[in-house]
């Protein structure tokens, strides 16, 4: 008998059994505001993000330029809200890609003993390379387009997903209902799909939020270092990189994108913590 319906029901029950904490609601509101800002950027922006105005260079905030202007006279507010689009797309692409690739690899490693050693040694080798250095190397050797940046940030995240899924499979395969299914001659792929996959949903949801936040921060770091997405496309990282040259006299060039970036990452992490506490109560209160 399939475990999927009961697993889904248990997941819904854990998500809805108690009202969320006020910090969770605040984090959700902030994140939704940033998402709305990105989606409706063309309507919310006062100017095009690349519109130059040499007469308005480095102007502080006023009624026309709500966050001031940069060294090229571009409206900082418009560039920050357009930068949200890139950051959110990178985060979503990395999180979805890492899970789509890591999930089947983790399922196979956890169930098939022969593949386990090979796959996990490959994952260990990938994890041995610092993620930011691997991303810099990939972007530096190729073009710095959006797809390349997503792939470069995604690769170091895949081993985490593989190890998480594998650990859940190893724990689940010792359950009585799995052993009974094996004795009844259930095919391996059917076993994985109907009995093992549902057990990975809850931890993957939580892990996905952390990957999302980490990817946004890594993209900002790459852009700040000058090896991320080109400056013709505004991102929070390259806005700060351009602004740091004028930080002493015009600190708002760095402050505004840094504040929005920090709020975005903090809200995602708070939501991830809330999901972790609900979906895995044993982890509640741990760092």
From TrEMBL:
This is ABC transporter permease. Signal peptide: none annotated. Belongs to the binding-protein-dependent transport system permease family. The chain crosses the membrane at residues 20-41, 86-112, 132-155, 196-217, 254-275. Keywords: Cell membrane, Membrane, Transmembrane, Transmembrane helix, Transport. Residues 84-272 form the ABC transmembrane type-1 domain. SUPFAM superfamilies: MetI-like. GO terms for biological process: transmembrane transport. InterPro entries: BP-dependent_transpt_permease, MetI-like, MetI-like_sf. PROSITE patterns: ABC_TM1. It is found in: Cell membrane. It comes from the Bacteria. It is a multi-pass membrane protein. GO terms for cellular component: plasma membrane.
């Amino acid at each position: 008998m399939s475990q999927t319906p009961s697993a889904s029901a248990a997941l819904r029950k854990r998500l809805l059994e108690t009202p969320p904490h006020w910090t969770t609601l605040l984090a959700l509101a902030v994140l939704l505001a940033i998402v709305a800002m990105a989606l409706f950027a063309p309507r919310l922006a006062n100017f095009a993000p690349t519109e130059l105005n040499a007469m308005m260079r480095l102007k502080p905030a006023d009624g026309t330029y709500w966050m001031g202007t940069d060294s090229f006279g571009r409206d900082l507010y418009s560039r920050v809200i357009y930068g949200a689009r890139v950051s959110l797309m990178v985060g979503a692409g990395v999180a979805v890609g890492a899970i789509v690739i890591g999930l089947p690899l983790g399922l196979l490693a956890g169930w098939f003993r022969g593949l386990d050693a090979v796959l996990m040694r490959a994952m260990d080798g990938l994890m041995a390379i610092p993620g930011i250095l691997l991303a810099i190397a990939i972007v530096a050797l190729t073009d710095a387009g959006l797809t390349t940046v997503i792939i470069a940030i995604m690769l170091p995240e895949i081993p985490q997903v593989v190890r998480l899924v594998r650990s859940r499979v190893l724990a689940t395969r010792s359950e009585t209902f799995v052993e009974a299914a094996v004795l009844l001659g259930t095919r391996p792929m059917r076993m994985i799909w109907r009995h093992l996959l549902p057990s990975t949903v809850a931890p993957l949801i939580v892990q996905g939020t952390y990957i999302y936040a980490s990817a946004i921060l890594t993209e900002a770091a790459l852009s700040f270092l000058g090896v991320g997405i080109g400056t013709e496309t505004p991102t929070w990282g390259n806005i700060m990189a351009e602004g740091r040259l004028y930080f002493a006299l015009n600190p708002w060039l760095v402050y505004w994108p840094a504040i929005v970036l920090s709020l975005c990452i903090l809200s995602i992490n708070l939501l991830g913590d809330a999901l972790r506490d609900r979906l895995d109560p044993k982890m509640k209160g741990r760092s």
